[in-house]
Amino acid sequence: MSKTISEIHEIRAKKQKDLLIRTDPSAVPTKEGGRMHILVCGGTGCTSSNSLKIMEELEILIRTSGMQDDIKIVKTGCFGLCAKGPIVMLYPDHIMYTLVQPEDVNEIFDSHVKNGIPVKRLLAGEQKDGEITNALDSLDFFSRQMRIALRNCGAINPEDIDEYIARDGYLALEKVLTEMEPEDVIDEIKASGLRGRGGGGFPTGVKWNFAAAQQEHEKYVCCNADEGDPGAFMDRSVLEGDPHSVIEAMIIAGYAIGASQGYIYVRAEYPIAVERLDIAIRQAREYGLLGEDILGKGFNFNLELRLGAGAFVCGEETALMTSVEGKRGEPRPRPPFPAVKGLFGKPTILNNVETYANIPVIILGGAQWFSSIGTEKSKGTKVFAIGGKINNTGLVEIPMGTTLREIIFDIGGGIPNGKKFKAAQTGGPSGGCIPASELDTPIDYDSLIALGSMMGSGGLIVMDEDTCMVDLAKFFLEFTVDESCGKCPPCRIGVKRMLEIVTRITEGEGCPEDLELLEILARNIKAGALCGLGQTAPNPVLSTMKYFKDEYLAHVIDKKCPAGVCRSMLKFLIAQDTCKRCGICKKNCPANAISGDKNTPFSIDQDKCIKCGVCMEKCPFKSILKNA
Amino acid sequence: MSSTELNQNATEQYQLLLAAIARHRNDRGALIPILHEAQEIFGYLPLEVQRTISEELNIPLAEIFGVVSFYSQFSIYPKGKYRINVCMGTACYVKGSGDILDKFKERLSIDIGECTEDGRYSLDACRCIGACGLAPVVTVNDEVFGKLNADDVDGIIDRFEKLEDIK
């Protein structure tokens, strides 16, 4: 049943009362004192480590104890602290449990739910003097963040539209449809300084303005949810944790540019996101927030989901549109830009998930507020997916201009196992590496470009001293060679040649001229490739050559891999002074390359050795050394 | 399965396919959604299935094959009963997913994209599944195994072998 504006207001007011327990527990009426909300993370990370089983067991316990009227279990989206999942959060106590296993459920239930005594061993973070004041806010991981795009992730049930409405959801849409002309919306977005969060950083309002200016009856609004950068998962988390924010923003965009149809192009690799989007679209339709005559204001807008099928190039805007049209997702030359001639040949705007998630907040909070956050040319916040060799793997949202050091060491908790930070990689296969010397650079779109990397969608992979930068460059080239669509020769042939050269360097067959050759190839590919994939494909090589030239030289001149990663340059040796001649290495060597016995020193026949490293792994005395 | 059972099974699958085509045929850009459903029904996209879609939608078979071969999620070969995917995203890669992939190849004696002779396992290197907090990650059908190292590979296969033995 379609809802009127006042009916939506009633839903909001009613649900807000229910959610007080999470937002402002002190305001909950005392007669409701026994109530409790237990939030369980239902994001991809936590469900992969059994969070749904935890939910089920909690439900059974609560039902069998007859407490189902007072205690509500809520499946939420991602909390962001993925390394510590599964995560369970209890309100009104505001207490977060991490690394919860199904076996722990009984203890949480008996101790905390029934008797109000928190289970200390599962608490997030260190507690001071055994005192639990506010477990969540005491964690650097959360207190240093500023959550705008992720505002509802981990806070609401994404499959319940009422919870989104209670958090001022669809209020921006109401404001736009009742108080603002399309050009006011565009002006507001322009004034906010919001730039595309998917990689390029193009000003969103300017893009909308181009499309709005086209005198065409048929226009389209698209959402790029084909999050292809390996290691980036913020869009997935927004879709899983707060799908309505994207839907609301797309309706607003449709109103602003004069479109009545939208498409969300989402990766098929994200089944949970697809399912929640599907549910959210259905609910929005039921409430009359999608469809004809939205909120009785005479504006029509419809939304359809389209699933990707595993092609990285479809994250490029023209390729994405070609794919929505049901064809091979190959990019096409620009101009004409999509805002003039896009999907089905009509004016189209395409923004990514995180960009859309910012829109309702900007409309409600105002451009002035939004543009007060961030740096001069990069406004607002950015979500980073931090992964790789870092303690707090997960999602963090921070104001633009935060330094890499703050992200990695303060929020991310530093590098595990006492290793040294070597570099951070941003922008995925299109980006580059940032060395330790640049840790204090404030991060925004422009500073990252100046460093030879780029924002990309916000994947941030941390590497320690065990990572070989040449091998990493090879990894990204393999990726782009694999994902090149083959349409333009610079990308199809050029990147392949780069990969061949880098491969030969990692195999100890490189020569100093190879480095020069790589640079020439890279320059030409950047200048000549048709789309963003090819134009940026050389970046990982260029930036690693810029900051880690020594490592390349070690490979080509000394034929050594300083990080000990490139196998063909490795040599395993036995340290005679610590070797106890136990024979374990000899027993485990698959190539029979080790000889020796109690009376003769052990040694490795380098001609036979296949460099598998088993001996080093098995040696109980750490007497096998990897010599680069 | 007897040959009549096989035929019956195939007929049912084709009926499902025709229903899927009917559902989408009026959508703009219907081909990819139909291919997704077809793969769901048949497990892969053999030439006969592509031909049926071609005839029903009046799109040349070559164009359909062009789309199928473009996207890595579409397969023209059957997959194993247990579809093993090793995530090769950056976060998994820097944490050693390459070694895990090698170990699967060695244990199953198959390469990426192949299926064991008994049809039990197929092995693929997949793109980032976004579970970077659990890196390195392997999925078997819909089940996710996280925080692995190469030594865990045997345990995973053994578990599925045991399941098969019970049957």
UniProtKB/TrEMBL annotation, chain A:
Pfam families: 2Fe-2S_thioredx, Complex1_51K, Fer4_10, NADH_4Fe-4S. Keywords: 4Fe-4S, Iron, Iron-sulfur, Metal-binding. Residues 570-599, 600-628 form the 4Fe-4S ferredoxin-type domain. GO terms for molecular function: 4 iron, 4 sulfur cluster binding; FMN binding; metal ion binding; NADH dehydrogenase (ubiquinone) activity. Belongs to the complex I 51 kDa subunit family. It comes from Candidatus Eubacterium avistercoris. This is NADH-quinone oxidoreductase subunit NuoF. It comes from the Bacteria.
UniProtKB/TrEMBL annotation, chain B:
Pfam families: 2Fe-2S_thioredx (PF01257). One of its GO terms (molecular function) is 2 iron, 2 sulfur cluster binding. Keywords: 2Fe-2S, Iron, Iron-sulfur, Metal-binding. Binds 1 [2Fe-2S] cluster. It comes from the Bacteria. Its cofactor is [2Fe-2S] cluster. InterPro entries: NADP_DH_HndA-like, NuoE-like, NuoE_dom, NuoE_N, Thioredoxin-like_sf. [2Fe-2S] cluster binds at residues 87, 92, 128, 132. Belongs to the complex I 24 kDa subunit family. This is NAD(P)H-dependent oxidoreductase subunit E. It comes from Candidatus Eubacterium avistercoris.
